[in-house]
Amino acid sequence: MTSIHSTYNRQNPSIVSIESTQYQLGELKGNHIHYNFNKIVLFLDAKGKSLFGQNFKICKEDLEIIYKLSCYFIQDHQTCKKLNIDPNKGILLSGPVGCGKTTLMKLLRHLTPHKRTYKIIPCRNAVFSFNHLGFKTIEDYGNDGFYCFDDIGIEPMGKHFGVDSNVIGEILLSRYELFTRNPEHASRSYRKNPAAKIGKAIITHGTTNLNADEIEERYGNRVRSRMRELFNLIAFDKNCRDKRK
Question: Minimal CA–CA distance to 232: which of 78, 82, 64, 87?
């Protein structure tokens, strides 16, 4: 299906368009947008239909997750603090198979089209690239690009000319080093000054079906520890239904 991109009014980025239909997500007051969550949900529902087909719908049971993600992506620092979300970190969206993690991460990046967006990278594709290109793949994804690594933990091990590698674990370690290179990007800086700007933070997002213990078993304690610093964990209920059925 061909993607339909959101556009926005450069004079008023609170107004976004899907084809010829405009959606006002809030009010522009000075340099700040005061977003309205009900209007955000209406836009996301319409955008979801344009991206994924007319059968797409925002499920009532997902509104709490969508609220948290929306507050993060619009960088509502005050609400993020109440929700224990650090806007200087990335998002790790976890939940059972079929709950809609990847769909939401594909959708929410359209909420703020006036800001830098991220690419969705299936983890298995990164491993296949490593198998073909070797450690250049880890170097390429361990750079200052803006990525969401999809399905962390279910990808196969990488092998290049007989050398095995836990490719995603190595990429996450590389991105952690970039993330912490400038201390203003570390979470401790946010705790000291919640109003601090992100600047050019090296943000990483991800989705996973695994819980914390399974992540440690898959990648080891070192990577699990670094992931705590890289990500805000936002989790679906473990009993969430499979929406693909």
Answer: 87
Per-residue pLDDT in tens (0 to 9) along the chain, 245 residues: 333 445 666 678 889 989 889 999 999 888 888 999 999 999 999 999 999 999 999 999 999 999 999 999 999 999 999 999 999 999 999 999 999 999 999 999 999 988 889 999 999 999 999 999 999 999 999 887 899 999 999 999 999 998 899 999 999 999 999 898 754 544 444 444 444 344 456 899 999 999 999 999 999 999 999 999 999 999 999 888 888 87
Q: From CA 68, how far away is CA 181, in angstroms rounded?
A: 27
* Location of structure tokens 């609220």: 67
Q: Looking at this protein, which amino acid is placed at residue 131?
A: N
pTM higher than 0.85, yes or no?
Answer: yes
CB 202 within 8 A of CB 59: no
Sign of the alpha-carbon torsion through 106, 107, 112, 113? positive
Question: Are β-strands 12-18 and 158-160 bridged in parallel, bridged antiparallel, or unpaired?
Answer: unpaired
Plot region of 177 (φ>0 → left; ψ -120 to 50 → alpha; else → beta): alpha
What are the beta bridge partners of residue 163? 160
Residue 3 in 3-state DSSP?
Answer: coil
